[in-house]
Specification:
Blueprint (H helix, E strand, L loop, with lengths): L6 H9 L5 H4 L15 H4 L9 H34 L7 H32 L9 H9 L3 H23 L7 H29 L4 H37 L5 H24 L2 H10 L1 H10 L5
Helix pairs in contact: 1-5, 1-8, 4-5, 4-6, 4-9, 5-8, 7-8, 7-9, 7-10, 9-10, 9-12, 11-12
The structure holds fe (ii) ion (FE2) (2 copies).
Length: 303
């Protein structure tokens, strides 16, 4: 074990963070639609050079709305998964019980936060943007997999949030301050979740043979494949939303460029940036070096 995470330390860290959904959005706190919502490292709109500056900003905001939706829906499978994981062991380690329930409570708050931002987006953007879903159907499909595969998926998502904020959001001064505030407040609580996920993955793997661990890893990759299909659908939705919002009909060459650039951007945002995160790879390696090697053999397709 390379890390020194503990339920007690994760709980203590989360107890000193206090923010409410109402502190971040609503009233005077409005989205500014003259600014981008997503950092370029995730949005990848600049290489679509046949778009005007305004069109790139509109696509950036469409990607911001999809980010709200996709994080909202992955958290809808994480919440029941954490509750189910905690439920059989409510009599055990008190710090463990409290840390996991705090984790679940924070995810419920994040789901609410993402929904509130989506309401603000819909009220201010002007034209509809379709998103993948519904969240409960996606949650059911993911939760039907081996719990170890689901736990590794959750681990990847929470470390991915660290990568997004630290590497490309924190120092970006051009983003809409309200959207940036959402990303910052989410990141602050996800740090603890990523550590708790590490402990959860270890506890689910502890009595497994190498073969059984690798079965969980294969199911994690299956979930990734399922999400990749959903991302391909989201790119089509974003293309339609862009044409609707701008009134510009793209020709076939432009559509192909859009799909190529945006599928790569979506794959990096939601899959590659988590699959290649060193903390995810360290945890996989601690289960068995084969787990790390297997994921590293697949991840270049999502980068
Ligand atoms: Fe979250
Ligand atoms: Fe989380």
């Amino acid at each position: 074990m390379l890390h020194r995470y503990s339920y007690q330390a994760a709980l203590a860290a989360s107890e000193i963070i206090h923010w409410r959904v109402e502190d971040i959005i609503g009233g005077e706190k409005r989205l500014d639609f003259t600014k981008p919502f997503m950092p370029e490292a995730l949005a990848h709109t600049e290489s679509l050079t046949f778009f005007t500056k305004d069109e790139r900003r509109i696509l950036n905001q469409i990607r911001g709305n999809a980010y709200l939706c996709i994080f909202g829906l992955v958290e809808e499978f994480i919440l029941p998964f954490i509750v189910d994981h905690a439920r059989p062991q409510l009599q055990g380690n008190d710090y463990r019980v409290r840390a996991l329930l705090q984790f679940a409570g924070e995810e419920a708050k994040h789901i609410h936060l993402f929904k509130r931002f989506r309401q603000e987006f819909e009220a201010g953007f002007g034209t509809p943007c379709q998103v993948i879903g519904p969240p409960d159907a996606i949650a059911r499909a993911i939760l039907a997999h081996d719990p170890l595969g689901v736990a590794i998926t959750t681990l990847q998502i929470e470390w991915m949030v660290q990568n997004h904020y630290v590497d490309s959001i924190k120092d970006d001064q051009d983003l809409d301050p309200q959207f940036k505030s959402l990303l910052k407040h989410h990141w602050i609580e996800e740090v603890q979740h990523a550590k708790l996920d590490t402990l959860m993955v270890e506890s689910l793997a502890v009595n497994r043979s190498e073969e059984e661990i690798m079965r969980g890893v294969e199911e994690y990759l299956e979930i990734g494949g399922y999400l990749d299909g959903a991302l391909q659908q989201q790119v089509e939705f974003d293309l339609n939303a862009f044409e609707h919002a701008t009134g510009r009909a793209l020709n076939e060459t432009e559509k192909e460029d859009f799909r190529r650039v945006q599928l790569r951007a979506n794959r990096w945002t939601y899959l590659g940036s988590g699959m290649t995160h060193e903390k995810v790879l360290e945890t996989l390696e601690s289960l068995t070096p084969k787990a790390r090697q297997r994921v590293e053999s697949i991840s270049p397709a999502f980068c």
